[in-house]
Amino acid sequence: MSAHLILRVVAKLLIPLILIFGFYVHFHAKYAPGGAFQAGVILASALILYALIFGMDAARKAVPPWAARVVLALGAFIFAAVGFVSLFFGENFLDYNVLLPTDYRAQYLGIILVEIGVLMTVTAVIIAIFYAFAGRSPEITDEDW
Amino acid sequence: MMGDLTQYFDYVLMAMLLAVGVAVIRLRNLFAIVMLTGVYSLLSAAWFTSLDALDVGFTEAAVGAGISTVLLLAAMLLTSRECDKVSVSRHWAALAVCVAAGAVLLYALPDMPVYGSPDTPVNAGVGMEYMDRTADDLKKIPNVVTAVLGSYRGFDTMGEVFVVFAAGVGVALLMGLSGRRREEDE
Question: CB–CB of A65 and B179 under 8 A?
Fold first, then answer.
């Protein structure tokens, strides 16, 4: 992992851009194609690129496996919790209109909360699966290919 | 008989998909096969985009061409780089299944509505209702896809999230989350 100077420099330039693009895809989904599922994959791919260039140990320092585990469960929990809040106020499951007095504002809030849950779960699951597979193989030398 | 010219674009993409599929079957080098499945996903994404399914194409490009390729490469490292030759005699059952499934699909083809026809169930039923109601229910959300996914069909989206969640938990249970073997843990 000592060589590949060009790859390292390009990756350092690209990773922040990938992260910003991921958040753009997430928060701009109101107007443009995209959404939390695609954004989660893009965010996770930034970490995967980091792991490919700088090695698994550096990636584990940036995002520890336990963090992926926690976020993975927390995202799904947030989504379901929004549904149960609606139930608690006596409406249908995931009926966002109870969240705020104005109906369409409540819909905005509900969608934003739910999409954050989706983003967290998708990002964390892909990172966790990548860790599970990639962490098992020893470091590969260039000659192996 | 020219019709819509963009359909020829679709035919070219489908022919390329077919060519990549045949190449994947014939190759024995797993690294080349993984790369070609990435190409297959990218071609699919281009095809979905040309069919105006932008969201699907976006997902296919990100998940299929990006993440799946990386995960398949990582999985390939745990096994060998070449796959064994399979004798031709073992392919007959697979060929029979493919021919039968293809025949059934071709038989069903005439019942399909014309592409883009306004009176298909997709365009006439509940989909149109969502298109009409979004402007009223969710003011200033121009992207109806987001409105449908996030609000009208929120329960379905929650199911999808739990499928992704279950996939993550399943891999974690089988392989361990950190990926380190136990004896190497300190």
Answer: yes
